[in-house]
Write a structure and sequence with these properties.
The protein folds into two domains: 94 residues, Inhibitor Of Apoptosis Protein (2mihbC-IAP-1), Chain A; 63 residues. The chain is 53% helix and 5% strand. It is built from five helices and three strands, in the order H-H-E-E-E-H-H-H. It has a three-stranded antiparallel β-sheet. Bound molecules: zinc ion (ZN).
Length: 161
């Protein structure tokens, strides 16, 4: 039930209509992680695939996303965090009534970006150090070669004496 498309399919016999219950439509519920689990006693019960929150007895003014957030504030579906949820492609019909999860996602992305940037800066610094060491080593080798050449020519000169 981690796929929104599969969750949406469970709502085939959803007892409410969009006009009577605009905050608990199959599209809203499936997008928020819920699938339909009706029982004879609870004909409109839905369950979040991640946090197992069960909700039902919907009233006309109920807002599924708000109730999910209130009763299960740490659910990654509420927070908009990665949790194996596969979103429906082309979600244009899902209204973004609340931009809080998107906002949190953005903060999450920015935090990761800052961490990566720090890592890149640290790498650049050590690369610069390594470059300097290589340059020093090349200079040292040249110097040694020159000294060796001087010594060799000195020995040759002495031999020829
Ligand atoms: Zn949940």
């Amino acid at each position: 039930m981690n796929e929104e498309v599969q969750r949406l399919k469970t709502f085939e016999h959803w007892p409410h209509t969009e006009s009577s219950h605009p905050g608990v439509t199959p599209i809203i519920l499936a997008a928020d992680g819920f699938h339909f689990c009706p029982t004879p006693q609870d004909p409109d019960t839905v369950v979040c695939f991640f946090c197992d929150l069960q909700l039902g007895d919907w009233e006309r003014s109920d807002d599924a996303k708000a109730v999910h957030r209130k009763l299960s504030p740490n659910c990654p579906m509420v927070l908009g965090l990665p949790c194996g949820n596969v979103q429906k492609v082309n979600n244009a019909s899902t209204k973004l009534e609340d931009d809080a999860p998107a906002h949190m996602r953005l903060e999450n992305v920015l935090a990761r970006k800052a961490t990566l940037l720090q890592a890149v800066t640290a790498l650049e610094t050590s690369l610069e150090d390594a470059r300097r060491q290589i340059v020093d080593a090349i200079h040292a080798r040249k110097k040694l070669q020159q000294e060796a050449a001087v010594l060799a020519s000195g020995m040759k000169t002495r031999k020829n004496d």
